[in-house]
Amino acid sequence: MTVRALACDFGGTLARPGLDPDGETVAAVLRDLNGTWVPRGFAAVFDAVHRRVWEADRATARQTPFAEEIRRAAAACGAVVADPVAATEALFSAVPDAEVDRDAARALRYLHDGGLVCVLACDTQRPRAVRLRTLEAAGIGSCFDAVVLSSTVGVRKPHPQFYDAVVAGAGFPAADILFVGDTLAKDVLGPLAHGLRAVLVAPDGYPSGADEGIVVIRRFADLPAYLAVGDVG
C-alpha cells in the first residue's frame, strides 16, 4: 500500500524533549503578570496538584488543561490568577520548547515536498500557538497540514479519540497513514490497533520485548530512505 499521509510525534522524534515547568517556574512567571498574586507556598501546592493530575491523566489517557492545574493550585493556596489561560500561554512562551533536530526538519520538508500530507500528532501541555511558533522557528511550520495536540484535543495517546483526530486531520483512511514516533505503546501499538501503520524511532535499535513485526528506524532522518525501499507495516 502507498503511504499518503504521515503522522509525526514531536519530542523524541522530530525534536529533543523540552522542559516541563515546575512549581517554582510557574510561580515566577505568574508573579510578573498583571492581575495575579501568588503566595510563597504556591510552588509546592502547584507541584502537588500537577502530580495528582498527571497520575489521573496517565490512568485515563486524558489531558487536563494546564490552565486548570493553575486554577486548582490557586484555589488551594489563595493565589489570585485573573486569567489562567493567558497565564498558561505566558508561561510556555517563557519556558523554552523542544529544539527541533535539523536533520529531522530536513527529512520532513523532503517528505512533505514529495506529496505526503503531514500531521503533527503529539502529547503536550503547551498551547497550540506556542507549538506553532516552535515549528515556524525551525522552518517546518508550513510542512504540517494539520496539528493534533493533546492540549487541544483533550486526550492523550493512546486514547482512541486521539487517533480519530489524526485520521480526520490527515483526510485519508487510517490504512493510508503512517504514524512515526519514539514511544512503542503510544506511537506504534496504539496506531496499529486503530488501523494505521507505524514506524518506531529507536536510537538504540530494536527494543527488547517488542513484536518482531514492528518496524524500527534509528532516527526520523532515516525515514525518507526507508520509505523509498521499505514495506511499511
What is the topological layout?
Blueprint: E1 5-8, E2 15-16, H1 23-31, E3 36-37, H2 42-60, H3 66-77, E4 80-81, H4 84-94, E5 99-100, H5 102-113, E6 117-122, H6 128-137, E7 146-149, H7 150-153, H8 160-170, E8 177-181, H9 184-193, E9 197-201, E10 216-217, H10 223-229
Parallel strand pairs: 1-6, 1-8, 6-7, 8-9, 9-10
Antiparallel strand pairs: 2-5, 3-4
Helix pairs in contact: 1-2, 1-4, 2-3, 3-4
Q: Could you explain the architecture of this structure?
A:
Helix content is 45%, strand content 15%. The protein has 233 residues and is an alpha/beta fold. 40% of the residues are buried. The protein has helices spanning 23-31, 42-60, 66-77, 84-94, 102-113, 128-137, 150-153, 160-170, 184-193, 223-229, and strands at residues 5-8, 15-16, 36-37, 80-81, 99-100, 117-122, 146-149, 177-181, 197-201, 216-217. Helix 3 (66-77) crosses helix 4. The N and C termini lie close together (10 Å). The strands form three sheets. The chain has a six-stranded parallel sheet with strand order 7-6-1-8-9-10, sandwiched between helices. A two-stranded antiparallel sheet has the order 2-5. The chain folds into two domains: 5-17 and 97-229, Rossmann fold; 23-94.
